[in-house]
Amino acid sequence: MVSTATKIGNFSFTNCLMNAAGVYCMTREELAEIEASTAGSFVTKTGTLEARPGNPEPRYVDVPLGSINSMGLPNNGFQYYLDYVTELQENPESKPHFLSLVGLSPEETHLILKKVQESDYKGLVELNLSCPNVPGKPQIAYDFETTETILTEVFTYFTKPLGIKLPPYFDIVHFDQAAAIFNQFPLTFVNCVNSIGNGLLIDDETVLIKPKNGFGGIGGDYIKPTALANVHAFYQRLKPEIQIIGTGGVKNGRDAFEHILCGASMVQIGTALQQEGPSIFDRVTEELKEIMAEKGYQTIEDFRGKLNYIH
Ligand code: RRO
User: Rounded to the nearest whole angstrom, what is the distance from the C-alpha of residue 70 to the centroid of ligand 1?
Assistant: First the structure.
């Protein structure tokens, strides 16, 4: 029997595949669709202190090789998502979940995380350090000093299982510097990667999306090599207690297999889920199981992180 079950921290999941934050997770209705699918979990849209309408439309466009977005952090406010995951956890049949959060300032982030700390929520929290699309707000995780300061402060009061959503890094020195910071903290996971920030896609002579004169986060096929490199770079550098969630360019079983081979314990689907809908989890799960069966692997631990090098 081939199984795609996995664990993150002390939480068990019947399937290692789930949505990526931002896709199918804005409303209770969308989240309920992921809950009812074969996905092992869901993560909520990144919630801020107050609800936000986000950037003007068009703000998300699919193209043959992926997507571009500048949503601008539209969300119903963190309390909306906190209430939903807290409600679901009362049902013993419920999957464990991820609550994605960030403030528009460090102060706001701490205010939100303190409220989550005081709440009855017992699941996982993902702190989004990598939103590329709020005009005037740089991606936090590209500023190592600010990142270290925020995490230092967070872990003075936050004791629930916490991970961070990272942007892609593109230099070996940055992998080294980022990992040295993350290894100082009791993080449960890091999630690699968010969209590649501030790309530009053009149709004829015009940009595809309205905000920021067309600049937006790139997802899909374009980003798989970058995502795999980030998953593996952090798998090589982080202490074993910090697990890796792999996100970026997953649309079939082979892509999920590669993320796990690079070290991912859980794999998220963003652009392809947006394009195909929640039935994608049936297809990708079956494709992943078929590859595992062909290779004689029964669990994802049989090959996780076991990427071969050429000597
Ligand atoms: O809402 C967004 O524009 C957005 C966010 Br918060 C994020 O983390 N990543 C992304 O591609 N878009």
Answer: 7
pLDDT of 137 reads 83
**What is the CA(73)–ligand 1 centre distance, in A?**
6
Q: Which residues pair with 6 in a beta bridge?
A: 13
22 C-beta closer than 6 A to ligand 1: yes
- Would you state the pLDDT for residue 268? 99
Q: What is the largest CA-CA distance in the chain?
A: 54
List Cβ neighbours of 183 (8 Å cut-off, separation of 6 or more).
237, 238, 239, 242
Give Cβ neighbours of residue 68 (< 8 Å, ≥ 6 apart).
Answer: 60, 61, 199, 200, 201, 208, 209, 216, 217, 218, 219
Domain total of the chain: 1
CA 182 to chain centre: 16
pLDDT at 71: 98
In a domain, 62, yes or no: no
**Two structure tokens written together for 80:** 């909306």
The range of the structural domain enclosing residue 161 comes to 6-54+73-197+221-302
- Residue segments in the chain with a per-residue pLDDT below the cut of 70: none
**φ and ψ at 78, to 5 degrees?**
-60, -30
